[in-house]
From TrEMBL, chain A:
Keywords from the named record: Cell membrane, Membrane, Transmembrane, Transmembrane helix, Transport
Superkingdom: Bacteria
Protein topology in the membrane: Multi-pass membrane protein
Species whose genome carries this gene: Pacificibacter maritimus
Residue span(s) of domain ABC transmembrane type-1: 89-289
Membrane-spanning segments: 20-41, 93-117, 129-148, 160-177, 220-248, 268-292
Cellular localisation: Cell membrane
Similarity field: Belongs to the binding-protein-dependent transport system permease family.
Protein's recorded name: Peptide/nickel transport system permease protein
Gene Ontology biological process terms in this record: transmembrane transport
Gene3D superfamilies the record matches: MetI-like
Lineage, highest ranks first: Bacteria, Pseudomonadati, Pseudomonadota, Alphaproteobacteria, Rhodobacterales
Any one GO cellular component localisation term in the record: plasma membrane
Main location: membrane
TrEMBL record, chain B:
Transmembrane parts of this sequence: 12-31, 101-123, 135-157, 186-208, 244-269, 289-313
Keyword terms: Cell membrane, Membrane, Transmembrane, Transmembrane helix, Transport
Alphabetical list of Pfam families matching this protein: BPD_transp_1, BPD_transp_1_N
Membrane topology label: Multi-pass membrane protein
Localization per record: Cell membrane
Protein name per Swiss-Prot or TrEMBL: Peptide/nickel transport system permease protein
Length: 301, 324
């Protein structure tokens, strides 16, 4: 089956599930907005020269006192909430995708090594995974994020935040991938074609990367899709707690953290809009991931 | 129960606690200098050396680790840099708040989630069961802190029905401060417990449904139906009983999640528990508190895992007889 036909099959299956279809369209739109955010955003909220304090604390444009220029209102600095949301969405998605990429990279490498070579390598790696599994990944990410931050001098904390968050999220979730890949590799490595290529004189790494890895990737792909929601949610949580993205480069979680301070003074729009966008993003990623899992790998439940 | 299984699981639990305590203790070496933390940057060198000796920081690493563990067994986890009080005291006074929050949330998530999962599995063909599953996906996707904020927005800011922070009035019962016996304590518990429980309810329902579906597909269920046994008996006597096994595991995982996300909920509601203590220790690099918290959490998680494994093995002989 060529990829094009396979894709068409998936698209046709999608049209039978209206809710999944709806979520997929929303997800697609959000990814597009995130991708082109710098050009789509009505204003540049980080350009301090364009901010006007007279425009601060404005409610959404449809409420009394609202300004037509700022559809979703402004924050305490006079920054346009809609622009902040678009750029925040971009940051949240970027961090989430890179973090999952890092988890896959670590998990795939360690999973391949332990599944192919077995012996003490497998014992050490899987024991480490077991120990890490004892802790909920969220707590671990929080711990790594919080501790890594305090290793940097205060003036470097903001600029290094992005890497710290990606690192914390990536490290906290590798065991899931390592276990999955190891199991796939063990079943794959026992097959005849692997034996045959070894007899033909291929080296370990040639077999590992040319034969075993490509055949173990399907479940990894499914888990990675599901994992994006986890990564985005955990990043938002870290940022809300003050151990994630800084206010100078806010993700949706940072925007919620900042907006939470204004909830009690009645400026609900600063916190409710980023919360809503975050929820919509997570629901559509999860609905899409769930559907993809049922399609590609019904066993992985 | 075979002895070797018990020994293996115990060994694993101790390994977890050992490795975590080693890493947690190592943190003090890598992050921050306690001498600077206590005396400040301006202190003279002589005072620094004196304090360093007084704190025992000049001894070799292994000696200090051994001393730390030995002290920990007597309940001495050192002094909090920030609070200038024994870490053990700080922890002990904050345990009740977190424990009550997590337990109430656990009761909610199991008592709502399990029945939902069971009915969604039994009547899986109906439209409302699939609607339930769609709602549960939304539930799983809700970040805990966002639920908390939206609840505060609705019930504290707009309606003014419930308090947005704190624990309300507490009563001391033999060294345990409980908020469950006063009206304000109960009112303060409602929103934090619900924020913590919502996504767990959805998670439990999904897990229980998946397990129950698995059981319903098995041969003995089909034979039971073929023998003409009533649906109600098949579902609740034959199927549910075997679904209860995985539910033991689910409850174990639940407690872990609840402890992790209690940290977040406590921060939203300024709940005076272990979570807010841990977060402020992280912010202020209060290493003794962080280390003690990690060791404590490792013990809790290792114990939960051990209990779950043993219960599981007692209920299912296949587990304890296979190499696992």
């Amino acid at each position: 089956m060529t990829p094009m036909i396979a894709l068409r099959g998936h698209v046709r299956a999608l049209s039978f599930k209206p809710f999944v279809l709806f979520a997929s369209i929303i997800l697609f739109l959000m990814v597009m907005i995130a991708l082109f955010a710098p050009w789509l955003a009505p204003t540049d909220p980080y350009d301090l020269a364009t901010l006007d304090l007279f425009d601060s604390h404005l409610p959404p444009s449809w409420m009394s006192g609202g300004d037509a220029r700022y559809f979703l209102g402004t924050d305490s600095q006079g920054a346009d909430i809609m622009s902040l949301l678009m750029l925040g969405l971009r940051t949240s998605l970027t961090v989430g995708l890179l973090a999952v990429g890092l988890s896959v990279l670590i998990g795939l490498t360690l999973g391949l090594l332990s599944g192919y070579f077995r012996g003490w390598i497998e014992t050490v790696i899987m024991r480490a995974a077991d120990i890490q599994f004892t802790f909920p990944a969220m707590l671990l990410a929080l711990l790594i994020g919080g501790l890594a931050r305090s290793m940097f001098p205060v003036n470097k904390q903001e600029s290094s935040a992005f890497f710290i968050v990606v690192l914390a999220l990536g490290i906290s979730h590798w065991p899931h991938f390592a276990r999955l890949v190891r199991a796939a590799v063990i079943s794959e490595a026992g097959k005849n074609y692997v034996m045959a290529s070894r007899l033909a004189g291929r080296g370990h790494f040639g077999i590992l990367f040319r034969h075993v890895m490509p055949n173990s990737l399907n479940p990894v792909f499914v888990l990675a899709t599901m994992d994006i929601a986890f990564a985005i949610m955990t990043e938002a949580t870290l940022s809300f707690l003050g151990f994630g993205m800084p206010a100078s480069q806010p993700s949706l979680g940072t925007l919620i953290k900042v907006g939470y301070g204004y909830l009690f003074s009645g400026e609900w729009w600063v916190v409710v809009f980023p919360s809503a966008i975050l929820i919509i993003l997570l629901v559509s990623v999860n609905v899409f991931g769930d559907w993809l899992r049922d399609r590609l790998d019904p066993k992985l439940r | 129960m075979t002895a070797s299984y018990l020994v293996r699981r115990l060994g694993h639990a101790f390994l977890v606690i050992f490795v975590v305590s080693l890493i947690a203790f190592q943190l003090g070496e890598v992050i921050g200098d306690p001498v600077t933390a206590i005396l400040g940057l301006e202190a003279p060198e002589s005072a620094r050396v004196e304090l360093r000796e007084e704190l025992g920081l000049d001894a070799p690493y292994v000696v200090r680790y051994a001393a730390y563990i030995a002290d920990a067994f007597t309940g001495d986890f050192g002094m909090s840099y920030k609070a200038q009080r024994p870490v053990a005291d700080v922890i002990v006074e904050r345990v009740p708040a977190t424990f009550e929050l997590a337990m109430v949330a656990l009761i909610i998530s199991l008592s709502v989630g399990i029945p939902l999962g069971v009915v969604a599995a039994i009547w899986r063909e109906t439209w409302w069961a699939s609607a339930l599953m769609t709602v549960s996906i939304i539930g799983v996707s809700l970040p805990t802190f966002v639920i908390g904020i939206l609840l505060i927005f609705a019930f504290s800011v707009n309606l003014g029905w419930l308090p947005s922070f704190g624990r309300g009035d507490t009563v001391m019962i033999g060294g345990w401060s409980t908020g469950l016996l006063t009206p304000s304590g109960l009112a303060a518990l409602i929103m934090p417990a619900i924020s913590l429980a919502i996504s767990q309810v959805a998670l439990v329902a999904r897990l229980v449904r998946a397990e129950m579906l698995e059981v319903l597909r098995m041969d003995y269920i089909r034979f039971a139906r073929a023998r003409g046994i009533k649906d109600r008996v098949v579902h609740f006597r034959h199927a549910l009983r075997n679904t209860l096994l995985p539910i033991i595991t689910v409850s174990g995982i639940q407690i872990g999640y609840l402890i992790a996300f209690a940290v977040v909920v406590e921060q939203v509601f300024q709940w005076p528990g272990l979570g807010t203590m841990f977060l402020s220790a992280l912010t202020e690099s209060d290493i003794p508190v962080i280390t003690a918290f990690l060791v404590l959490i490792a013990c809790v998680f290792a114990t939960i895992n051990l209990i779950v494994d043993l219960l599981y093995a007692m209920a299912d002989p296949r587990v304890r007889l296979s190499k696992g």
